[in-house]
Amino acid sequence: MHNFKKALFFGLILVFSSVLLAQPNFVKQIQITKEDVKATVSAFKAVSFKFPKQLEDRLEVEIARKLFQLSVDEHINTEDGFLMSKLFVFDQAQTELQLNGLTESDTIIGFLIASPAITLPIIMAKNRKEDCDSPLIIPQEVWRKGLPDPDYTRIPNEVSHQIIHHSASDNAITDYANLVRSFYIFHAEVNGWSDIGYNYLIAPDGSVYAGRDPGVNLSQDDVLGAHFCGSNNSTMGICMLGTFNNIVPTTQALQALEQLLVWKSAKENLDPLAHLAHPLNQNLGTIAGHRDGCATLCPGDSMYVLLPLMRQKTLDRLHGCGVYPFVSESQTMTQQLQLFPNPATKNGFTIKSVSEIQEVALYSIDGKQLRKWNVNQKEITLSAANLQMGGVFLLKIRLANQQFISRKLIIRPF
Q: Domains along the chain?
């Protein structure tokens, strides 16, 4: 019997080895046909499994002396009778796994992910609570070092909803760069998506990672992602790294999320307390959870119950910056203040108001003030000189009654 078990063990290793297929860029695929046998495989720091639908809620995998249930990744829709598990990520490279719950006729596909380790430069700073600037962002060229760049046609997206997710990853993970890199490979090479699905990812230490690559013509927050139940138009995806079914994110992570929501709400003139129509929900909040669009536990109960407070804190912060957002331009608002032409050209743009305009400030998309004009009249034409590269900007207009109005201004390159 001992020799039989030994033979079965090495036989299974042979099965693994014979079907180990080198996938492009850091993914190896294995086929598993036997249960309850610990197998030695190529080193990996993340793994997911594709399994028959009839095995849902029956499979477990043991890795690093921990037992994990193969819960379904709700972001992935398969049409071949198979399901994809969520991604399991580890700080240290693993070489053994044991899958439990298989029958003799079942076959499971495993996807082993191993990206080269990197060390991030220390670029983070404490989030500034007194302003509406963007938080500091770890860009793709830093965290994606050594990995292939995505190559696809980006789609511009006008955002009216900020969607909060959780990654459903182990809260014990401390190598956040590896976690983000693993999700990038998982989304792009295993799922077959063009890029990582989220626009931003926020780590427990408050680090904010730029997610989906906007390319050279779009901004990070305005590129269409892949995260919201197959209906991503008008949404920006923010993923909180961790699992928040029973615990809340760290204070640092929540502060970074708040800063990101404040900045984006200011940029787009979004009322954090408002609800707007979306194909998945006719009453979807401008700040919402993944579960508000489809049947999912994301972003976890403990994170989801924080959203009302997060909306109110975002609005309070906006008011502290002198931003009083509106959701849509009603006829009254349009008559009160007009901005034309928009997009603007090298000839500049005109602001016309029914009440006296006292001040106009022009901000970049990352919240930096570029120009300021003292006006004291009801109509003014302003120059776009020195903005030949064009882009998307935010105008903050102060009227004589101390009312602030914010408008998005597009300037065409010239």
A: 2-113 (2.60.120), 137-320 (3.40.80.10), 331-411 (2.60.40.1930)
